[in-house]
Amino acid sequence: MRWGPACADPLACQTIPVEADTNLSWVGGDIRNVRFLLVEDSAELAQPVRDLLALDGHGVDWAASLAEAQDCLNAATYDLILLDIMLPDGDGRRFLQAQRRAGHDTPVIVMTARAAVSDRVDVLDSGADDYITKPFDFAELEARVRAVLRRRGGAAQTVRIYADLSFNPLTATVTINGESRDLRNRELRLFEVLLAAPDRIFSKDQLCDRLFSYAESVSDNAIEVYVGRLRKKLAGSAARIETVRGLGYKLTTG
Amino acid sequence: MRAFLPNGSLRAKLVVQLLVVAAALAVLLYFTVRTTADRAAEATQDAILGAATTSIAEQLRATEDGIEVDLAYATFSMLGAIGQDRLFYRIDIGGKTVTGYDDLPLPEVQPASLAAAFYTAPYLDTELRIAVVARSMIVGKGPVPVLVMVGQTRLGQAAIADSLANRAALVGLGFFLLAVPLSLLSAGSVFNPINRLAEAVGRRGPRDLRPVRHPAPRELAPLIGALNGFVARLRGALSQTETFIAEAAHHIRTPLSTVRTEAEIALRQSNDEGTRVRLRSMIRGVETSARSASQLLDHAMVLYRSDQLESVEVDLATVAQNVARAFEPTAELKELDLVVEGEAPLLTTGDPLLVESALRNLVDNAIKYSEAETEVRIVLSRAVGMAVVQVLDQGRGLQGVPVARLTGRFTRGQNVGDVVGSGLGLTIVTEVAAALGGRFELTQRETGGTCASLFLPAC
């Protein structure tokens, strides 16, 4: 838990008057998103995963069975497939092998509930790019997606432009006036959060939730450290991170 | 046999039975030889005795004065040639003994002709074999019956029969003694197919559950059938266990994923601090139970695989690199450097899945307890006869918690309250080390942090 000394009792904490992160229908302006195909038979799980990916501005098609997945793949192209293994009409690994044999090389991350080491080995042998064990930390899924897309050279599609900077989340570089700067992982994720909704105020808490695992303890000023570092990386750009006293931070221009 | 060898050796049973038969045959041989020898000797002696008696009877001549008896020496010398036997004779003419021993026992039935009749009768201190020949002679007024008897002791014949019987006894004993190694050999060869079958089954790897197809005698077919039936049932039970573990994981983890993802969305959408705190605590709970479920299943898998240990060559360097690659994104989230260095290849033998499971747990722990922007190093090296994998972190270290406590089931250090865990990770590592014939050590680094060392037999 990461409430600070000023806020020892979490329930007594004052409500921070900032907006909720985003709403589900929001899709970031000119941001080029990753297009996902989610193959998952459990509707209860598929819905929140779609919502979360949509929150981050990605497009998601959902297939509840391998047959539906095949229909989707026939109709559209995807940047990445999130594939469950145990599906009502077959084994995801077989489907994957068939895809690979047919020459389809869309990157695949397998979401497996079967955590045994032998299953993980099987999954990679079937041609998956990576796997993630359910239930997953969404930040970890993002990290794995980023890593797979980077490995597969999907970087070109995903450059985002804001003010006078361009940002490539796959290579984790910010280019300002032709000068490239590498972002470290947490700087990158912080920037992604802020860039998804420019001029929106994010509380420290909201940013902490996105940046740190719930399984780790984080000191109260940890977020300040990363904001400070990101500001340095953005130096010289019209885009800057503004501190809104008592409320949090926002990305803004000018 | 069954009574006193209820669970004893079949081989001993068979040998004993063969020897009993051999002994019976030897005894039978002895008695057969003895009886036959007796009969043959008696027949020979009877023929001589009969010939002598007939010869005496034939040499009786009727004269005017009576009957002349001529006991030729040659006749008796023929009989005497046999040995130390004594001879007795008696000649009765017309019912009166005219010469010889008049108390020599008479035959029960009077013979009717010159053909000799034989009988055995006690006489004096011994037993006599007596030949009797009857003839009738014309003396004076009419025919007079004449009876010639010659008796002989049978000491010589008994001696011959005894010596033959003794030889037979020796031959019988010889046969019996010869039968001992032969029956041992034959019993051995009878059990050879069983031994070969046992070896063939014993040579199988622990995970080899194919049916037994070893060629074997017809008599072993029911045994092999029963064995194969058992193997099939075992295979069924094991695959059910594996399926159950996988299904259990699926049914626990899928709903947990739903809860976790929904909670994460709710957390993003909520701006009420109280709710947010509750949601975070909910996510931590889900994470703890997911981790516990996964490690319980891992633990079951380790126990299950330890029982049927697969032994292949495993390159620890490759396993370490695979594990590092799998954890790379997780480490990156904390901006941790995950480094693999040292000896490559580093070979050990064992079950690769167990090795990987142990290493994953160590790396997972190291990442969990590391501060952001530090380094986790996987160092491969060799010690005396051991391949060593060390996972070094710069985290909070052990802080004086005894290692035995950390490696126990469901026990964790006191300094980890803020980090999600199940208390099974190091138990798994310790069990894997034990199953593979190695050991696990956990030490505090002088520079801070923990050094977890997994020692496995090098090859």
Fraction of helical residues of chain B: 40-55%
H/E topology pattern of chain A = EHEHEEEHEHEHEEEEHHHEE
CATH top level class name of the largest domain in chain A: Alpha Beta
Overall structural domain count of chain B: 3
Greatest interface and its residue counts? A-B, 59 and 55 residues
Tally of individual helices of chain A: 8
Please, what is the average pLDDT of chain A?
Answer: 81
The N- and C-terminal alpha carbons of chain B lie at a distance of: 52 Å
Beta strand count of chain B:
14
| Approximate shape of chain A | elongated
Looking at the structure, the CATH topology of the largest domain in chain A is Rossmann fold
Helical fraction of chain A: 25-40%
CATH class placement of the largest domain in chain B: Alpha Beta
The main sheet of chain A comes to:
5 strands, parallel
Count helical runs of chain B.
Answer: 9
Determine the CATH superfamily of the largest domain in chain A: Response regulator
Describe this structure in words.
The complex is a heterodimer of chains A (254) and B (459). Chain A is α/β, with parallel strands linked by helices and 254 residues long. Chain A folds into two domains: 5-22 and 159-253, Arc Repressor Mutant, subunit A (Orthogonal Bundle); 35-155, Rossmann fold (3-Layer(aba) Sandwich). Chain A has eight helices and 13 strands. Chain A has helices at 43-55, 66-75, 92-101, 117-125, 138-151, 185-196, 204-211, 222-233, and strands at residues 35-39, 59-63, 80-84, 86-87, 90-91, 108-112, 130-133, 160-162, 165-168, 173-176, 179-182, 239-244, 248-253. A five-stranded parallel beta sheet of chain A has the order 2-1-3-6-7, with helices on both faces. In chain A, helix 6 packs across helix 8. Chain A is elongated and about 55 Å long. By secondary structure, chain B is of the alpha+beta class. Chain B has three domains: 10-162, 2-Layer Sandwich (Beta-Lactamase), CATH 3.30.450; 205-308; 310-459, Histidine kinase-like ATPase, C-terminal domain (Heat Shock Protein 90), CATH 3.30.565.10. In chain B, 52% of the residues lie in helices and 20% in strands. Chain B has helices spanning 10-58, 73-80, 155-202, 221-269, 273-307, 316-333, 352-368, 403-406, 425-435, and strands at residues 61-62, 67-68, 87-93, 96-100, 117-123, 126-139, 142-153, 312-315, 337-342, 347-350, 375-383, 386-392, 439-444, 450-457. In chain B, the strands form four sheets. A five-stranded antiparallel beta sheet of chain B has the order 4-3-7-6-5. A five-stranded mixed beta sheet of chain B has the order 9-11-12-14-13, with helices on one face. In chain B, a hairpin with a 2-residue loop joins strand 3 (87-93) and strand 4. The longest helix of chain B is centred in the first third of the chain and has 49 residues, at 10-58. The two termini of chain B are 52 Å apart. The relative contact order of chain B is 0.07. The model of chain B has no long low-confidence stretch (mean pLDDT 84). At the A-B interface, helix 1, helix 4, helix 5 and helix 7 of A face helix 4, helix 5, helix 6 and helix 7 of B.
